C-alpha cells in the first residue's frame, strides 16, 4: 500500500503548509480511518490486514500532529530539513526566559494563595502569546524563515508546557 | 522514576538558592531554558577582585534533576576562576548526580547556564 510512503500532509490530502483547514483535516482523517477500518479487512489476507492497521496508526499520528499548532510547525520544519533542537538548544532570548520565570513565580504565588482566578488570568495572557507566535509562524513559513520558525516552535514548546502545568494546578485547587 | 540519593539531597536541601544584583559589575547572570521540558534556570556568579568566584546563586523552575544540577554547580563554582568554571562539563554533573539518560539534558542546562553567566560577566569586564 503506497499510502505508507506518504508524509502526514499527503496522507491526509492536505497542502503541506502551516495553515491547515481544521474542518478538512477532520473530514479527511475520518474518511481515511473508515477506509482502513479493520471491519473492511475481515476477509483480506494477513498482509493486507497488517498494512491497513499500519495506515490506521499512521493516520492517527498524522491527525494528532497536524491538529496541534506546535507539532504541525515542528513537523513542517522537519520536512524542510530543519530540526527544532528542543532537547539541546537552551539559548532562548533573555526576555522570554525572564517572562517564563515570572510566570512560574506567579503560578507558585497563586497556588499558595489558592487563587484560581489569578491562574485563569495568567492562562489568558499565555494564550495571547501563543496566538502571536502562531501568527508569527504563518509569516515565517511564508517567507521560508526557518530558523526564526524554529525559535517560535521552541517558544511554543515552553508555552504548551506551562499551560499544561497551570491546568494541573487549577485542577488540584478545585479538587482540594 | 527513582531519583538518586544525591539528587534527592539537593532537591530537598537546595544550596545557594537566591538572587544576586544583576547590575553589579562583579556579577554575571546566565539564563537558559529547555524547551522540551519547559525548565528555566537562572545562574549567577560573583567574582572578587582577583577574578575568583566567591558566590553563586541559582533559581530554577523545573524537575528535581534540573534543581539538583543547578544546586550542585553553585557549590562547585565557588573558589574557581572563570576559566575553570567554563570547563565544568555536563558529563561530570550527570556522573556526580547519577542522572539517568533521559535527564542528561538537565545537566546540559546547568553547563549552558555556567557558560552564559561567565560570558555575561566577561562582557561586563573590559579585558
From TrEMBL, chain B:
Q: Where is the NIF system FeS cluster assembly NifU N-terminal domain?
A: 2-125
Q: Entry's SUPFAM superfamilies?
A: SufE/NifU (SSF82649)
Alphabetically, the GO molecular function entries are: iron ion binding; iron-sulfur cluster binding
Tell me the GO BP annotations in alphabetical order. iron-sulfur cluster assembly
| GO cellular component labels | cytoplasm
Top-rank taxon, per record: Bacteria
Stored Pfam families? NifU_N (PF01592)
Briefly state the protein's biological role.
A scaffold on which IscS assembles Fe-S clusters. It is likely that Fe-S cluster coordination is flexible as the role of this complex is to build and then hand off Fe-S clusters.
> PANTHER family attached here?
IRON-SULFUR CLUSTER ASSEMBLY ENZYME NIFU HOMOLOG (PTHR10093)
Q: Which family does it belong to?
A: Belongs to the NifU family.
Q: What is this protein called?
A: Iron-sulfur cluster assembly scaffold protein IscU
Species of the source: Candidatus Methylopumilus turicensis
